[in-house]
Amino acid sequence: MLTPDGARLIARAAEALAAGDELGVGARLRAAGAPPELVAAAFTQAELRHRAMAAFGRAGEMLFTRAGLEQSTAEAAARHRAARFAGFGRVADLCTGIGGDLLALAAAGPGLLAIDRDPAHLRIAVHNARVYAPEARIDARCADVRDVDLAEVDAVFVDPARRADGRRLAAGACEPPLAWCFALTERVAAVAVKAAPGLPTELVPPGWEIEFVAEGRDLKEAALFSPALAAGAPRRATVLLGGAEDAVATLAGYPDPDPASRGGAAAGPGAGGGRGVQGRRPGRARGRGDGGRGDGGRGDGGSGDGGGAAEAQAPGGSARPVGEPAAYLYDPSPAVTRAGLVGELGRRLDAWQIDPWIAFLTSDRPVETPFARLLRVEASLPFDVRRLAALLRPMGIGALELRRRGLAGDVDTLRRRLLPARRDLVPGGPAITVIMTRHRDRPWALVCVAQDGGPGEVTDPA
């Protein structure tokens, strides 16, 4: 596949796939003398390149394996992470795979040591890195990463395997083990480890930074940075925004305290609001406590509106208010919730939680943010299927999305009870999102409209 003949076969295969003529073109290529195994490999590469286009801007010039593509880092995430290695001389990429991170490190300019025990993956990785950085200095070695001398390396990135025999390993399990990866700091101070997003955070040593990365609403991965690479805050939530510049948004701070430490989460009774929104704004913290170094803010007592809120102290004195559902609801990115930064996001949005155990935030005014989906609340009420159905059916709904968080129940069954048939949907009608959750430890429902006006769908993200 690395020869000119191989490249021509892949190009023919790609044309055949686009035209839907794989069988015909494959037969003609074999009849013309192309070895059957090369024809099959060419069609595999063409298919994988097509699949990889969403992750790599130059996928049409790269090579892949199925397993390697499934476990590779997308280009935008790799570039974001590679920025941490700016200023380091020689960087080792351990467990290189097909080179998703190697190509970003190569484009950043340092000398590279690439290690993988799969010779095919290693050769593919070097090819892919040179697609992006033709002059990259890459010392590629086929070896077990545990046997490599790192004496002349300034920084290390390691992406341990999280699959074995085609199956995903349990959260926190990998090969080499995480304990080995963390122990690399005994030889090289600057170490970054790619991990599964479901990683139990208690496995990470003190002083290491944990970053969770999402693309849209899809949580992709975690990255762990040793103290020498940490950027100040112990947790980060990063959202890949896409676009030509691979834009990203990052929220950094201290993880939220355990809700059990709140010392009472119930807010005072609300005053009742317009458009079916119950309650008004609770007391909010004075002082945001940037990065956990705040001034020990306190609540202002609800400004006399009867909607007082309980608060919990985060490290550094920041407060986490809890109060009544208001006019707008924020559904944080899974990167934010996984990083434990819902409280930090709430402080930046001037918003509060509706329940200490639930990640939704609410506020009286809308603030666009890349870290949460913004919804306008049309109605807020105790959860009752019959009351919800009576509320929804006259609304002329065009699309219905159900989101369940903190409540048990089958979404499909609930949807049938709310709108028995899809014929009940009205073309061109509003896209409604029904949030089934908890408020003050009570089952609660919020009927919402997305601020972007996008279509809804029936989902069960819980």
From TrEMBL:
<dbReference type="InterPro" id="IPR019012">
    <property type="entry name" value="RNA_cap_Gua-N2-MeTrfase"/>
</dbReference>
<feature type="compositionally biased region" description="Gly residues">
    <location>
        <begin position="299"/>
        <end position="309"/>
    </location>
</feature>
<dbReference type="GO" id="GO:0036261">
    <property type="term" value="P:7-methylguanosine cap hypermethylation"/>
</dbReference>
<protein>
    <submittedName>
        <fullName>Class I SAM-dependent methyltransferase</fullName>
    </submittedName>
</protein>
<feature type="domain" description="THUMP-like">
    <location>
        <begin position="372"/>
        <end position="448"/>
    </location>
</feature>
<feature type="compositionally biased region" description="Gly residues">
    <location>
        <begin position="265"/>
        <end position="277"/>
    </location>
</feature>
<dbReference type="GO" id="GO:0008168">
    <property type="term" value="F:methyltransferase activity"/>
</dbReference>
<feature type="compositionally biased region" description="Low complexity">
    <location>
        <begin position="310"/>
        <end position="320"/>
    </location>
</feature>
<keyword id="KW-0489">Methyltransferase</keyword>
<dbReference type="InterPro" id="IPR041497">
    <property type="entry name" value="Thump-like"/>
</dbReference>
<dbReference type="Pfam" id="PF18096">
    <property type="entry name" value="Thump_like"/>
</dbReference>
<feature type="compositionally biased region" description="Basic and acidic residues">
    <location>
        <begin position="287"/>
        <end position="298"/>
    </location>
</feature>
<feature type="region of interest" description="Disordered">
    <location>
        <begin position="252"/>
        <end position="325"/>
    </location>
</feature>
<keyword id="KW-0808">Transferase</keyword>
<dbReference type="Pfam" id="PF09445">
    <property type="entry name" value="Methyltransf_15"/>
</dbReference>
<dbReference type="InterPro" id="IPR029063">
    <property type="entry name" value="SAM-dependent_MTases_sf"/>
</dbReference>
